[in-house]
């Protein structure tokens, strides 16, 4: 990795940290999380993920499953099944937040 790439990564990490801090301080982070949870629940996504977890535990036996194994097995499919509309909606909310708050993104991020 070149020095320039490391600088860009560092700048992006700084911007990400700024955004996260402002989201948390403003309460917007909690509001967005509640919105995501409600949308996933109403779409049936949560029930699908719970069902996958139950099926895996039944197949392997509760004594032979660790949380890490369950997460590793279920997470990729769970992420894939998040409705595209919700992903776009969250991105739009985040961009709107960045636009309305004093967060300098710079040209590299």
UniProtKB/TrEMBL annotation:
UniProt GO cellular component terms: DUBm complex; nuclear pore; nucleoplasm; SAGA complex; transcription export complex 2
Pfam families: EnY2
GO BP field: chromatin organization; mRNA export from nucleus; protein transport; transcription elongation by RNA polymerase II
Keyword Transcription regulation attached: yes
GO molecular function: transcription coactivator activity
Compartments reported by the entry: Nucleus, Nucleoplasm
Domain of life: Eukaryota
Keyword Transcription regulation: yes
Reported function: Involved in mRNA export coupled transcription activation by association with both the TREX-2 and the SAGA complexes. The transcription regulatory histone acetylation (HAT) complex SAGA is a multiprotein complex that activates transcription by remodeling chromatin and mediating histone acetylation and deubiquitination. Within the SAGA complex, participates to a subcomplex that specifically deubiquitinates histones. The SAGA complex is recruited to specific gene promoters by activators, where it is required for transcription.
Subunit structure and binding partners: Component of the nuclear pore complex (NPC)-associated TREX-2 complex (transcription and export complex 2). Component of the SAGA transcription coactivator-HAT complex. Within the SAGA complex, participates to a subcomplex of SAGA called the DUB module (deubiquitination module).
Family: Belongs to the ENY2 family.
Protein name (record): Transcription and mRNA export factor ENY2
Species in which this protein is naturally found: Macrostomum lignano
